[in-house]
Design brief:
Length: 144
C-alpha cells in the first residue's frame, strides 16, 4: 500500500468525500421535504464512514489528509449562495447536489484512470465513493 498512486488516489477520495459532506451541510437546513432531508443525512453518513476509513489508510501510509481545493470550495459556496438566494426551493437544492454528484463522479473516474498503479483497497474505496455519489444523484431526481 505504499506506492504513490495509492496515496494520491486516497487523497483525492478524501478531498471528494469532504467536499460532499461540506456541500450537504451547506443546504441541509434549507430543505423542507422530510424525505429529501433524510436522504441527504443518510448520504452524509455514508460519506463520513468512508472518509474515516480513508483517514485510517492514509495514516497507515504515513500520509496526511487532503482538503478540497480552496477554489472548488469557494466556487461551490458562491454557486450555492447565489442559487439559494434566487430560488430556495427543494428542487434547487436537488439540482445543486445532483450537479455536485456528477462532478464528483467525473473526477473520481479521472483519478481511477490517472492512478492505475493504486492498490486494490484504494481503488475499491474510490469505486464505493462513486457508487455513493451515483445513488444520491439518482435518488434526488424525483426532487428536481
Amino acid at each position: 500500500m505504499e506506492n504513490n498512486d495509492t496515496v494520491y488516489l486516497l487523497k483525492e477520495c478524501d478531498a471528494g468525500a469532504k467536499m460532499a459532506i461540506s456541500s450537504i451541510d451547506e443546504v441541509i437546513d434549507r430543505i423542507g421535504d422530510s424525505g429529501m432531508k433524510r436522504l441527504l443525512r443518510e448520504s452524509k453518513s455514508h460519506h463520513e464512514k468512508l472518509e474515516a476509513q480513508i483517514h485510517g489508510l492514509l495514516a497507515e501510509c504515513g500520509s496526511e489528509e487532503k482538503e478540497p481545493a480552496a477554489m472548488a470550495k469557494g466556487m461551490s459556496w458562491i454557486k450555492t449562495s447565489m442559487k439559494m438566494t434566487v430560488d430556495g426551493s427543494d428542487a434547487a437544492v436537488a439540482d445543486l447536489i445532483t450537479d455536485g454528484c456528477n462532478m464528483g463522479i467525473k473526477s473520481l473516474h479521472r483519478y481511477l484512470n490517472q492512478y492505475k498503479a493504486a492498490d486494490k483497497t484504494s481503488r475499491d474505496i474510490c469505486t464505493r465513493l462513486v457508487s455513493i455519489e451515483e445513488t444520491l444523484g439518482r435518488e434526488l431526481r424525483s426532487y428536481l
